[in-house]
Design a protein that fits this description.
Layout lengths: L3 H12 L12 H19 L5 H12 L13 H13 L3 H14 L4 H13 L3 H14 L4 H13 L1
């Protein structure tokens, strides 16, 4: 479970993100909470998958090209992420961007979602936005090298 105050603080920082990340994250208590959130996310990612058929049915609804069929349970950011991954692999970057944004709205503390959306923006040639998402990724997980890679790519093309 994500502490609502930490999530609100992260969202506020991300709203004011620039292409160059600031690794200053605030107090030690806030940093400790962020690390616990990241550890929770990693634990969930490494947990055995249960209810796979439910997740796949939600994913199938997201992958549908018909907006009327795209209903998403508000608690399932994972289904949105998987749908976005499928769209990205199919080079349907606009649809992938929509699904990554939905997943971020549902789980604003998942650094991988910002990294993936950054890749999506970069694939569309929208390097300013790619840099902002990469900076958000770095703020959420400053030791994850891929965030810096995303930022470097965006800055290279700016």
């Amino acid at each position: 479970a994500v502490d609502a105050a930490v999530a609100a603080e992260i969202m506020e920082q991300m709203a004011s993100a620039t292409a160059t990340p600031s690794l200053s994250m605030g107090s030690d208590a806030a940093n400790a909470k962020r690390w616990r959130v990241n550890e929770d996310i990693q634990d969930k990612a490494n947990a055995p998958q249960t209810g796979e058929s439910t997740s796949n049915s939600k994913r199938a609804k997201l992958v549908s090209e018909s907006p009327a069929e795209n209903s998403l349970d508000e608690t399932d950011a994972t289904a949105a992420k998987h749908a976005a991954d499928d769209f990205f692999k199919a080079n349907k970057f606009e649809r992938a961007l929509e699904c990554y944004s939905t997943a971020i709205n549902l789980d604003p503390c998942d650094y991988i979602l910002y990294s993936n959306r950054s890749a999506c923006f970069a694939s569309m040639g929208r390097y300013q936005e790619a840099g902002k998402d990469a900076a958000c990724c770095i703020r959420l997980h400053p030791t994850w090298a891929k965030g810096y890679s995303r930022l470097g790519l965006a800055e290279y093309y700016l």
